[in-house]
Amino acid sequence: MRVRLSKASVRNDLVHKIEEISGQDLLACYQCGKCSAGCPAAFAMDMLPSQVIRYAQLGLVEKVLASDTPWFCAACQTCYARCPKGVDLARIMEAIREIVLQEKGDHITINDIPPVELAEFPQQLFIGGFRKYTA
Amino acid sequence: MKVPYFPGCTLNTTAKGFDNAVRASAAALGVELVELPEWNCCGATFPLLADNAMDLLGPADVLYKASLEGERLATACTTCYNVMRRANYALKEDGEILEKVNYFLEHDSDYEGSVEVLDVVQILRDDVGWEGVRQAVTKPLNELRVAAYYGCMVVRPPDEVAYDDPDNPTTLDDLIEALGGQPVDWPHKTECCGAYLAVKSPQATQEMSYAVLSSATRNGAELVVANCPLCQFNLDKQQQTMAQRHAGYRPIPVLYYAQLLGLALGLDGSNYDLDKTIIAARPLLERVGLL
Amino acid sequence: MSGKLTPSEDNNPISKVLIIGAGIAGMQAALDIANAGYPVLLVDKLPSIGGHMAQLSETFPTLDCAQCIMTPRTVDVGHHEKIELLTYSEVESIAGEIGDFRAIVRRNPAYVNWDVCTGCGVCTEKCPKRVISTQFEVGMGRRKAIYTLSPQAVPNKPVIDRQNCLWFQMGRCRVCEKFCPTGAINFEQQAYTVEERVGAVIVATGYDLYPLVNMGEYGGGEVPDVIDGLAFERLLSSSGPTAGKVRRPSDGKEPKEVVFVQCAGSRDPELHMPYCSKICCMYTAKHAMLYKHRVHDGQAYVFYIDIRSAGKRYEEFVQRAMEEDDTLYLRGKVSKIFRDGDKTIVWGTDTLTGQNVEIAADLVVLATAMVPRPEGKLIAQMLDLPIDEQDWTLPLDDNIHPVETLRAGIFLAGAASGPKDIPETVAQASGAAGKILSLFARWEGERMTQELAETSLQPDRLAHA
């Protein structure tokens, strides 16, 4: 199946939304892949971090919203620290998470975590984790 | 000298041992960490959305309160360090957000960005000096091979938070050397442990922590020291089940640098929570003569 | 360029050229001008000429031996009666305008009297002090404290490295002096300056490579088996420190897994150099091919973002590296390189399959960015020539005046104005020479017209000739 690209499809509203929420210019990325190469969580992702940007560049945002990649991002900033174009991919991931959370609700709930584990968590894991994964 | 201090929520509760160790060792080295009279949680993650004035309220409030106490604010939890440094940077970069935040906080005065946020380790390096630390050591580490794990928070993004080389930091290595230990040269000093992924996917966190720990042991480390309660938790906790997925995995204890520092200074470590770790550190500490 | 006459003291523009830099650009321009019968003053900071091309093993796209195509040039330059060669020298100042520039050149002390030295090489043989050659061998080999840059050096006269000479540092040795058959060693030698007047100047100061220390994620220059392209050229070179055998620096073993990383420091506006360094795709393909020719059971990997092979027969050359020499081209930038045991680990990605990859390499060659030499900036400042944000000297414009500058009589040739390969460099050198010869021809014509007018032989008719 060929994906039909057009002016309306490649720079659609969702693309603009991602750019606005993240404050990043998606087209500044020239797909070198350095972010992916250094990402410590990429092994768990269904698509590489750089592919998330690529699909968004093509306007295929639905694919990105359905990907599990933004949820495995640990915001470690390795991508941003090494990007030759200064694209802050961590912010793009956060923007995508935010869009999905607003649309679909929480990614995790407190009931997902066994109480015995919850009791062991350092405070910041609880706070940080729930800030990232809930609406 | 006195420096205003922000413990953060985790050092106040689950990682109280770290907090005790930091305060006691700093005091023994002439640095009195004076806790802010009032403070709230920094937020535990730096908010990455644009136009995020709301998310900056927490850290901004802390910074404002710190500004009443002086020009510096020390913290030992590197996540708090990262969040507050980045918040400071964001507020100073964007006049509009600073104005909104100040307006909402409704304090008697505005926060202008006057506070410098510091990691306690920086204060040890720059104000006490490694020679000063070396001279105060009464129980040297006896060449114990220690892998200093810096994690992400003190090195990235470099222009906002780094007080050392972001690709190969050596501050904690220098500290270990000053304590009479042998810092290990290893390539995973700043590789992410998994951070808050632990809440979503313990498996992914385990793999990330495994990459860090196996690199430390492969390069000869007997002990790993961390500077962040979440890193210490992940690296310690994940070892509980690591042998199930990585046959033949040999555990290695993970402590806070401050616990090691306190013991080396001859202080009483009984409130450092030394026995609270999943991988026991006591046998190693006794072998080396620190306990 | 108007070539307007600037009256000098003798009321004559001087038909002599000062060429700053004796790499391939400087040498080509020097020969073009000298062969037309005009005098050239050719100055170089190093003890001998040839620049970076002298360090290369073979050149793309022909795989010609660099020494073989360059040596005829260096020998011609060394012998040419119209070329005055001042090596181990630096330009200290240049005043004046087109037709009459006054240059002060400092001759640095070699501590060897070159007029008396025969180039026999006994001094170098006997010298007890060995040091790593950071300049010519790029850290891959050693030289003595008294040395010539290479076996085919022109001039083939040694210099003493004061910093590493036992006499200068510790007051002992002087073995070179004892063995020199002509008494050429002179520890008392001082620097001195010469003043020269020329009518035109060519700036051919060339390039350097971006230092590894600036790339912390690639080891910051501390990992022994991570080297740059020029260092690899020395390993490939049959007259190099390993006699052309590819050996890894850490332990001398022959590497079986070699990773080449393109764009190391180039195309990186955020952290390093924003521009593309033009030559790296080509020389990396060359390196991969030459490596396979030497190590038949080796595997070469090239990490790239794009392949820029925009010259004549360049694309075919790169495809040969892929097809004939089994080089695996991986589209993706490397994020981290570090030591693990006796291997060097490379973390990269292949964006085409969407797969992160890791290679346990024996040797890693970084195609680092080309940067202008610091001497280029000094000369530009001396000559009031504009430079850009990365310190490249700017030509008059980027479109149709590549070798002229905004100052009449001052020209650029080669990498001083930006990354370029050898064919383009040689073309620019001849272009600059051509412009200067055109000036000289016009000046000669004007001189003749003037002379004839003064001899009062039908002055009116000839003045309008």
General description of the model:
The complex is a heterotrimer of chains A (135), B (291) and C (465). By secondary structure, chain A is mainly α. Chain A folds into two domains: 7-104, Fumarate Reductase Iron-sulfur Protein, Chain B, domain 2 (Orthogonal Bundle); 108-135, no CATH class. Chain A is built from ten helices and no strands. Chain A has helices at 7-10, 13-22, 34-38, 49-57, 61-66, 69-72, 78-82, 89-104, 115-120, 123-133. The radius of gyration of chain A is 16 Å and the shape is globular. The model of chain A has no long low-confidence stretch (mean pLDDT 96). Chain B is α/β, with parallel strands linked by helices and 291 residues long. Chain B has two domains: 2-120, Up-down Bundle (Glutathione S-transferase Yfyf (Class Pi), Chain A, domain 2), CATH 1.20.1050; 132-288, 3-Layer(aba) Sandwich (Rossmann fold). Helices cover 47% and strands 10% of the residues of chain B. In chain B, the strands form two sheets. Chain B has a four-stranded parallel β-sheet, sandwiched between helices. In chain B, α2 crosses α14 (257-264) and α3 crosses α5 (95-105). The longest helix of chain B has 17 residues, at 202-218. The two termini of chain B are 29 Å apart. By secondary structure, chain C is α/β, with parallel strands linked by helices. Chain C has three domains: 17-108 and 191-206 and 373-447, 3-Layer(bba) Sandwich (FAD/NAD(P)-binding domain); 122-179, no CATH class; 211-369, FAD/NAD(P)-binding domain (3-Layer(bba) Sandwich), CATH 3.50.50.60. Chain C is built from eleven helices and 24 strands. In chain C, the strands form eight sheets. Chain C has a five-stranded parallel β-sheet, sandwiched between helices. A five-stranded parallel β-sheet of chain C has the order 15-22-16-17-18. Chain C has a three-stranded antiparallel β-sheet with strand order 6-7-12, with no helix packed on it. In chain C, α1 crosses α2 (66-79) and α7 (280-294) packs parallel to α8 (314-323). Chain C starts with 16 loop residues before the first strand and ends with a helix. The model of chain C has no long low-confidence stretch (mean pLDDT 94).
